[in-house]
Amino acid sequence: MTTQEFKDQFKKIPQRAHLSMFLQTITSEKYDELIEYLESLFYENMTWDNHGEWHIDHIIPLASAESEDEMTAFAYYKNLQPMWEIENMSKNDDYDPE
After folding, report:
1. For the chain, what percentages of helix, strand and coil (3-state, to nearest 5) are there?
2. How far is the C-alpha of 12 from the C-alpha of 1, rounded, in Å?
3. What is this structure's pTM?
4. Using CA atoms in the order 81, 39, 75, 13, what is the torsion angle rounded to 10 degrees?
5. How far apart are CA 52 and CA 49, in angstroms?
6. Other C-beta atoms within 10 Å of 20: how many?
7. What digits encode the pLDDT tens for the residues 1-25?
8. pLDDT tens digits along 21-66
9. Of 7, 16, 20, 45, whose CB neighbour count within 10 A is largest?
């Protein structure tokens, strides 16, 4: 499959399916590590109770993957960050490596 074919196929997958793909890669042991990791990045006033006002963002967007290997790498939990909803919505699938 070419890079463009992969990207075309990926764009057909609904966003919730992307999340499902990611969650399937998390084992129960890693789940606690994920929660602890995300909590360590919380901004002031971020809590699990107000999740919805903030999102779990992929630092390098899954949409930028050019292969299945990159998709797997980008699904790694250390590529996640909590981000306020408005900031995440404006970011969309943009990524600035700097």
Report:
1. 55, 10, 35
2. 15
3. 0.68
4. -70
5. 9
6. 11
7. 455 555 555 555 555 555 555 555 5
8. 555 555 555 777 888 899 999 999 999 889 889 988 889 988 888 8
9. 7
